[in-house]
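Hi V.,

You were right to ask for the full record rather than a summary. Here it is.
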Amino acid sequence: MRETATSPPDAPQLTHQHRELLDEMLDKWSLQILDALCGKSLRFNELRRAIPVVTQKSLTTALRRLERNGMVQRRIVGTRPIAVEYGITPLGKTLQGLIDALLLWSTVTLPEVERARTQFDAQQE
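Predicted structure:
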């Protein structure tokens, strides 16, 4: 007999708005950016050095998206030349535990995932 899990009636349902937000928070660069900023505020070039494989365009796009969603704040630093510094907002800090949990989960399960991938790929040949 097949078991099916039922959610409680008051459990959140995955809507278009949820999917859109999760897509933006779990994209290729956002988790790395948020993780870097949870430690301290960083200037744009410091972020680029912290995530060396990200392009300038991708970093700019991800930062704007995170800023739009209230996770990151952009601050003009009054130095010469004028610089921009990015910091995590209180709302963005609420993601730190989730980011840590995802990193732990992926670290623990990665060997099993690698075995499954190898098995799958061998069956495809």
